[in-house]
Amino acid sequence: MTPRTLRIQGRGWDGFDRRAGRRRRFYRRFFSTVAILAVVVGIAAGSLWFTARNRALTAYDRFQAEMTASEYDAALQTYRDVQQRALHEPGYFTYTAEYQAAMSRMESDLTGRIRSIYDDLSGEKSLDAASRSLLDGMQEVSGMILARMARASCEAYLAGTGDIEETGRVLTLLVDVQGSHSAIQSLLDEIPALTAAQPTFLAADQAFQGKEWIDAATAYLGLVDSSTGFLRETAQARLDACRTTMRDVVFADVRTMMAGARYYTALDRLQVLGRIYPGDADVASLLAQCQAQTTTELEAWTGNIECIAVRPLIADTASAFDGDAYAKVAGDAMLTTYEFKRILQQLYDRGYVLVDLPSLFDFQTKDGQVVATHRTLQIPKGKKPLVFNIEGLNYYAARHMTGNSVSLSLDADGHVVSTYPSPTGMKTDGEGEAIGLLEAFLVEHPDFSFNGARGTISLTGYECVFGAVTDADQVDDRNAALQSNGEAPISLSADQIEANRQQVLQMIKVLTDHGWSFASSTYGGIDISQASLARITADTAKWTAQVESLTGPTNILVYPNGSWIKNNDARMPVLKAAGFRIFCGIGATPYLSIGKDSVFLDRVLLNGYSLVHTDLSRFFDASAVRDPARPK
């Protein structure tokens, strides 16, 4: 049989696929073309990328060269081009960051050159041709920079560090520079307004730096409302900064006032805050709460203001009146807790209401001099104002023998309580001292206090504060007094003394938040009328360093035992230099004298002696309040 050759359509004898070969040749040519095109496009794109990047990176060098050659038209055009590209770079390749960096360097260099020109003009130089050419050539850019410098000069004047006459002279030289005329002329037109507003602006800045937030914000707000242009913009910026900085502090203060029932003070504060923060939801909410608590009708008081004072109370009559060497002194100098509680009730029944001593007077500095004025006192209709003082609430060791409390502390609820002797041993609660007894009375009779007022606590620094040694300087005196009583001396480390300080600070904050204020009774409880200038100076310095550092600033001095000096006494400037402006003596009848820069008043001292020898009938029936435990 003859062999037959198998032929398949489209294939040769060896199975070669001619169609597949054509396809392979086509793909090879296609991919080669694509690769060539990709290389061409890549080279073109790389060239464009390199050109664009090089243009961005060399922009500053071009500008610098043009400025050096004084080719200001070209430099201005370069700046404008860079500025446009810094905002939006067209095309596929964007170098916004590079253009922004170039623009920043351009403006920095130009600012330095223009600053030199500006400073030269401030040095009494005139505007020379070269400087004028630069300023005019750079048009809106130099105008922007000049306007910024001119505004800074005007702001420096408002802040008290600039010369407005010199600024006006410089601006007059620059007012016709191309690109800056409008901004400079508006500042020149405002110079009279700036001059008139500068004292207020400076006072507002000083109040801001002193954290007198309300005064600062109110002053800035007044400037905003009464001015236009640059002055208004500057005051608005200050006001905005003040609003932000003060907000947490002032709202916390208002809430503290309200927690201490000082609703009238809080209401006044909120009405001011309503102008500073118009439309603020927090202001509206707190204002509504205060208005609900201040519905009592008030009237201006024009009569005498009575002031009464007590010393630390006798809590344990058995130990106070035991016939020892301290018994008569204790009986004459102090009231018992029994008597104080009954006095409070009779004062309330007779229409008295507690008012805050510091709030009765205003002390403003005018032309460098302090001026004292009596504020109009508004109290609930039908009530009579009463100022209350606790004198010398230190708890000296000698009083361990007179039935007094020995110390103050905070209880678990954050209330100030005292530790005192009793027939069953030492006790700690609110029943042993005037603070706790008054607070308890106010729970039952809140209308005995107007606007949350309590009283003024005067302190020395001798031995201790509130029964605790708060300074190493007190230790020697404390130990001498303890040993005189037959008690063991104490030894305290620096850490223990600091812990005492912190505890006293906490108590002072609680008391202050609840309407109590503080005063000095000198550091050593000295007889000021007999003390030398040197002794008063040294004593005052110690009180400021050791006690005022705890209580905070006070302008009240309670003369120990009422021993006083006249306003024109050569020793008085020492006391006034320490900030004292309200001076409290002792007298059986109301006395108030307002001098040019200070106030003098008398307090009626309530104690065992005055219950017998002083007419106190306008306050209470002495026979009805007298403690049966007192010796006959």
In round numbers, the mean pLDDT is 91
What does the largest sheet look like?
A: 9 strands, mixed
Find the structural class using helix and strand composition: alpha/beta
- The domain tally reads 3
User: What sort of overall outline do the alpha carbons produce when their principal axes are compared?
Assistant: elongated
Helix content: 40-55%
State the CATH class of the largest domain. Answer: Alpha Beta
Number of strands: 16
Q: What would you report as the Rg, rounded to the nearest angstrom? A: 41 Å
The end-to-end span amounts to 165 Å
- Residues in β-strands, percent: 5-15%
CATH superfamily of the largest domain: Glycoside hydrolase/deacetylase
Q: Which terms would index this structure?
A:
632 residues, alpha/beta, TIM Barrel, 3 domains, nine-stranded mixed sheet, three-stranded antiparallel sheet, 16 strands, 53% helix, 12% strand, elongated, disordered N terminus
Brief summary of the model shown:
The protein contains 21 helices and 16 strands. It is α/β, with parallel strands linked by helices.
